[in-house]
Amino acid sequence: MRKAFLTANEVGRGHLENQRVRSGRVTIHDVAAAAGVSISTASKALNNTGRMGDDTRERVKRVATEIGFRPNALAKGLLSNRSFTIGLLTNDTYGRFTLPVMAGITEALVDHGVSVFLCTIEDDPALGKVHVDAMLDKSVDGIIASGKRIDRRLPVDLSNLPVPVVYAFTEGTPGSVAFCADDFQGAALAVEWLMGLGRRRIAHVTGPESFFSVRERARAYRSLAGDVLPVMYGTWSEAWGHEAVAKIWDAPGSKPDGIFCGNDQIARAVVDALRERGVRVPQDVSVVGFDNWEIVAAQTRPPLTTVDMNLKALGREAGLTVLALAEGRAVEPGIRTLPCELVVRQSCGGNPDH
Amino acid sequence: MRKAFLTANEVGRGHLENQRVRSGRVTIHDVAAAAGVSISTASKALNNTGRMGDDTRERVKRVATEIGFRPNALAKGLLSNRSFTIGLLTNDTYGRFTLPVMAGITEALVDHGVSVFLCTIEDDPALGKVHVDAMLDKSVDGIIASGKRIDRRLPVDLSNLPVPVVYAFTEGTPGSVAFCADDFQGAALAVEWLMGLGRRRIAHVTGPESFFSVRERARAYRSLAGDVLPVMYGTWSEAWGHEAVAKIWDAPGSKPDGIFCGNDQIARAVVDALRERGVRVPQDVSVVGFDNWEIVAAQTRPPLTTVDMNLKALGREAGLTVLALAEGRAVEPGIRTLPCELVVRQSCGGNPDH
DNA sequence: TTGAGATGAGAAAAGCTTTTCTCACGGCAA
DNA sequence: TTGCCGTGAGAAAAGCTTTTCTCATCTCAA
User: Fold this and answer.
1) How high is the pLDDT of residue B85?
2) More exposed terminus of chain B, fewer Cβ within 10 Å: N or C?
3) Residue B142 contacts residue B325 (beta carbons within 8 Å)
4) What pLDDT was estimated at residue A93?
5) How many inter-chain contacts (A to B, CB under 8 Å) are there?
6) Domain A82-182+311-338 classified CATH 3.40.1550.10?
7) Max alpha carbon distance in chain B (Å)?
8) Integer Cα distance of A65 and A100 in angstroms
9) Do B120 and A102 touch (CB under 8 A)?
10) pLDDT beyond 80 at A317
C-alpha cells in the first residue's frame, strides 16, 4: 500500500543513521571521535592551524573526508561574525538588469563560499525595510544595491547599516562605492562604428531625457555626429521606435543613413518600421541598439548590432568589492564606470565577424 | 583634505558606540542588563514563553524595542536547526521562468522571516554541487529546484539531501513534491476562446515535440479543434513563427481563421508575418500566445491575448510547501498542476475587457 | 641525573539564543 | 508554627566551531 503523506524526513533526509543521531549532521565531534583526537586538535588539523604531527593532521583530514564532515556555517559565523552570505537588493522586477549583475556576483563569490540572497522590492519602502532587516538578522556580510537606472535611489535607507553596502547600477549615497556602465563611452562606440562604416547622417532615437544615461549617450552622440539632426527623446517602448521612424520619413528632406537607438526595444521597432517602409537594413540604413538584451537583439531581423554594458562584469566587481569591505580591506570610494563593448551582428552591415 | 580610502566601518557601520562595543551588535545580554533581569527571563519575555509577571514581560519588551534588539538568526538557527533560509536552484539563466517563481516564493515566505538564496547553475553539474554544498553548509531549511521545462531534471542529484526538496517547473524525483502548470487546461482555455469567437479553422504552431508541455498543449488542441489541420512543431523562435505562416499561406487551400501558438515569441512572429502579408489581426485571423511574457506579449502589435501559467502562484505554493516540510508537517507527494488563465489583449478581437 | 626547552595535544571559553531545571520566597492550610 | 504549593526568576546546558591557554611528555644539554 502506498503511503499518502510524507514528511521532511522521508522527502529529503539522507540515511546517516550510522553517524550522529541527534541532529542528523556530522559535526567536528564525530571527526574527533573517529580520528581519536580532541575537538580542538581536529579543528586545528582541518584549518591548517596550530601545531601537531603531520601524521595526525593527515589522519584527521582523511577521516573528515570519509565521514563527510562539513563545518556548520552557522556556528562558524556566530563566532567570526562572518556569515559568508550577502544580500542583493533590487527593485528591478523584470530582472533585465539585475539578473546579469546577479550572475556576475555569484560567479565572483561562489569560489569564496559566499551565497547570495536575492530580495526584490517593488518600490515599496516597507517591503524594503522588511527585507533589509531580515538580512541583517541573518548577519549578511554585506549588501549590494541594484536597480533599473543609475540616477535613482532604492526606496530604502541603506546609509547607516552595520554592514558594508555597494551600489551597482543604481545611485549610491555620497561617499559610498558605486559601479555603473560608461554610457558616454558606450554611445561613442556605437556612433564611431556607424561612422566607420561611412555613415554620415546619423540620427539618435532614445528614451526620456530625464534619464542620466540618456543624456550621457546623447552627449556622446552629439560630440561625434555633430548637431546635424536633433536628438529624438521619447519612451523606452517599441511604439516610440515606430513613431520616430514615421516622424523622420514622413518629414521632407534627406533621410538618415544611420540610426543610433537608446535601447534594443527602440532599435527593434526602428528596424521593423524601416522594413515596413521598404527601407533596407543594413543596406540603406545602419541601426545600432543599446543593452544587448539577447531576447530582443538576437530575434530582430536582421539581428541587432548593439552596445553591451557588461553588467556581468559589473556584478563581479561589485561582489569582489563588497567582499573586500566585509574583510576589512580598504576600498576607494566613488563611482566607478566600467567600459561597454560593441556586439556586432547584422543590423549595420560591415564585417559581422569583427 | 578628502580621505582617499575607506573601510567597512566607515562605509556602513552605524554609530552604536553607546551600546555594546564588542561586536557592535545589540544582544539579549544588553536587553537583560537594561531591563534589570537575567538573560533567560529576557528571552522568555520576548518569546512569550515561560512564567513571569506581566509588568516584567512588558518592561523587557519595551526595553528591547528601545535599544533596537534583534535576535541573531545565526545563534537561533544553531540551536533550533532552522535557519529561516531556503535555496532556489535553477538552470534558467534568462530568468524567464525562474523570476516569477522566485517572486512568488519570496512573497509567500518573507512574512515568515525566510530569505531566499538564488543559485543559478548553467547545466553544470559541478557548479550545481558547489552551490548545493554551500547551501547545506548554511543549513538551509529547504531547497526549491526550478528550471526551464517540466520534463527535464536539474543536472544535480537532490535525492538524498538532509533537507526537504520541492520541485517547481522542473522534473522531480519519484515520490517527491512537484508543481507545474496545467498545460492541457491552459491550451484548452486558448482554443476554447478562439472557438468562442467563432473561429473554426484553427491552426497550432508550436515548439519541439520533445517537450512534454508541447505534447500536452497539442493534445488539448486536437481534442477541441479536431484533426482539421496538422499540428506544426518547430522551434521556440520567432524565425519559426515566420516560417510557419509562410508554409500555411504559400500552400494552396483555405487558410486558418485562428492560430494558437506554443509561446509568445512564436505568436509575435506569426502576428508580424501576417501583417506583412496584409492579413489583418484580429479581423481576419485571431492569434493566441502562451506564457504571457510581458515584454513580448505587450509589445506585439496588436498586443497578444495569451495564456498565463501563473508562475508566481506556483512559486508561492512551492514556498509554502517547502516551509511546511521544514517544519515537519506532512505533505502529500506527487505532481500538482496549477490552473493557467487567459490574459485577454487585442490579438483575438472579441471583448478585450473580458 | 636533573632542569630547560620544544613539541604535540587537550581543556575551556567565546559567540548568542533558547529551554530545562532549580531555587527562593510568599501565602495558605493544618 | 510547620509544611506544602504556587509563583516568579535565575543558573546552566545545548547547539557547533575556533582560538587561546595550559599541560604533559620527550629530548637534549649541563
Assistant:
1) 96
2) N
3) yes
4) 87
5) 219
6) no
7) 91
8) 35
9) yes
10) yes
Count of other CB atoms within 10 angstroms of residue A135: 24
| Angstrom distance (rounded) from CA B10 to CA A86 | 18
CATH topology (fold) of B183-310: Rossmann fold (3.40.50)
Side-chain half-sphere exposure of B188, counting CA atoms within 13 A: 12
Nearest residue to D19 via alpha carbon and C1': A40
Q: For B317-323, what is the mean pLDDT?
A: 97
Chain A residues touching residue B161 (CB < 8 angstroms): 12-14
CA–CA separation, A103 vs A328, rounded Å?
24
What are the sequence ranges of the domains in chain B? 8-71, 80-180+312-332, 183-310
Whether B247 CB is under 7 Å from strand C: no
**Chain B interface, mutation test: which of A6, A9, A11, A70, most B Cβ atoms within 10 Å?**
A11
- B274/B11 Cα distance (integer angstroms): 57
Q: Report CA torsion sign: A177, A179, A180, A186.
A: positive
- Would you tell me the crossing angle of helices B28-35 and B54-66 to the nearest 10 degrees? 120
Nearest chain B residue to A71 by CA: give it: B137
Question: Residue A354: pLDDT above 50?
Answer: no
B234 CA to D13 C1' in angstroms comes to 66
Other C-beta atoms lying within 10 Å of the C-beta of residue A31:
26
Phi-psi domain of A250 (left: phi exceeds 0; alpha: psi -120 through 50; beta: other)? alpha
Bond preceding residue A125 cis, omega within 30 of 0: no
Question: Which nucleotides of chain C have an atom under 7 angstroms from any protein CB?
Answer: 7-12, 14-21
Q: Nucleic chain C: which protein residues 307-326 of B have CB below 7 A from it?
A: none
CA distance B25 to A139: 10
Let me know if domain A8-71 sits in CATH 1.10.260.40.
yes
Asked whether strand D has any atom less than 7 Å from the CB of B40, the reply is yes
pLDDT in tens, A227-270: 889 999 999 999 999 999 999 999 999 999 999 999 999 999 99
**pLDDT on residue B351:** 60
CB contact under 8 A, A8 and B135: no
pLDDT at site A351: 60
Confidence of residue B17 (pLDDT cuts 50, 70, 90): very low
* CB contact burial A185-200 (16+ within 10 A = b; e otherwise): bbbbbbbebbeebebe
Closest nt by CA–C1' to B75 = C16
Q: What is the pLDDT of residues B57-102, one digit of tens each?
A: 999 999 999 999 999 999 999 999 899 999 999 999 888 899 999 9
Mean pLDDT, chain B, integer: 90
Helix (H) or strand (E) holding B205: strand B202-206
pLDDT reading at A8 higher than 60:
no
Which homologous superfamily does the CATH classification assign to the domain defined by A183-309? Response regulator (3.40.50.2300)
pLDDT digits (tens, 9 = 90+) for A62-81: 999 999 999 999 999 999 98
Q: What is the pLDDT of residue A10?
A: 42
| pLDDT > 50? residue B12 | no
Q: What's the CA A327/C1' C9 distance, rounded, in angstroms?
A: 31
Q: Which nucleotide is nearest to B79 (CA to C1')?
A: D15
Same fold, B80-180+312-332 and B183-310: yes
Query: Whats the size of chain B, residue-wise?
Result: 354
